Amino acid sequence: xxxxxxxxxxxxxxxxxxxxxxxxxxxxxxxxxxxxxxxxxxxxxxxxxxxxxxxxxxxxxxxxxxxxxxxxxxxxxxxxxxxxxxxxxxxxxxxxxxxxxxxxxxxxxxxxxxxxxxxxxxxxxxxxxxxxxxxxxxxxxxxxxxxxxxxxxxxxxxxxxxxxxxxxxxxxxxxxxxxxxxxxxxxxxxxxxxxxxxxxxxxxxxxxxxxxxxxxxxxxxxxxxxxxxxxxxxxxxxxxxxxxxxxxxxxxxxxxxxxxxxxxxxxxxxxxxxxxxxxxxxxxxxxxxxxxxxxxxxxxxxxxxxxxxxxxxxxxxxx
Length: 319
Hints:
It is a single chain. The chain has a 5-stranded parallel beta sheet with strand order 2-5-8-1-9. By secondary structure, the protein is α/β, with parallel strands linked by helices. It starts with a helix and ends in a 10-residue tail after the last helix. It is built from 14 helices and 11 strands. It has helices at about 1-15, 20-30, 45-60, 75, 110-115, 120-125, 160, 175-185, 205-215, 220-235, 245-265, 270-280, 290-295, 300-310; strands at about 35-40, 60-65, 80-85, 90-95, 100-105, 125-130, 130-135, 140-145, 165-170, 240-245, 285-290. Helices cover about 45% and strands about 15% of the residues. The longest helix has 17 residues, at about 245-265.
């Protein structure tokens, strides 16, 4: 199933989204390993279009939540409402009860509302008035953040950041890709009319779960496991890092590496899978020292340093 479904899925998304091959690879690695993702980039960089195209191509239900300062937890999870005809309360489910949720500008809602997502992210369930309700098995949260504007925003707590498998930067397009976007507009193509771009489902939610089960069985050599753990542990002793990556980071990194191997048509993980995903998995989890920040160092730069210093294992058949 993996070899026959994953390449067409990527090609389908690329019909709607131009010049985002690397970002799509990262999103698919997260999605098929069951990980949640932050997409960080300025307005107008197709963050929402990326997620919506993935939902359509994967045949999954999609809901978008616009996070604002007045958004309440019940607006996300739902609430019990009295039904006069029945004479009792019934749960009106919030938009989180779906396969793929886009939390747009997640850092514009206060901490209380952000925290409403913690249980759903970790356990794929929601508790309303003491009663636990399961979310769809496919449930995956994608969140967007704008790195430019900070007025009226609320930083995500470290505990919530750590529950996101990846943070994927979405920057300006390369010139050729930007020309293609403009050429499409000149031809009268509406990027949001996905059906007109030939975008359709190549699978459904049931197949997504089946693929996730297959991905979880992909082989990972002991040497590759040790390589991954070694990099994670280096983040805890690097002089530029005040707080390094957690064990959860290592777990989701390994899971995403398996998914990336599957997307590449391999039945085993190689060091390049680990290295490709490293900036997405690690950077948002690292807290740099004040001295490193004063020197202008960034988390991705430190991750690159650590990868350069780590000995890469040689895996038979990986060449």
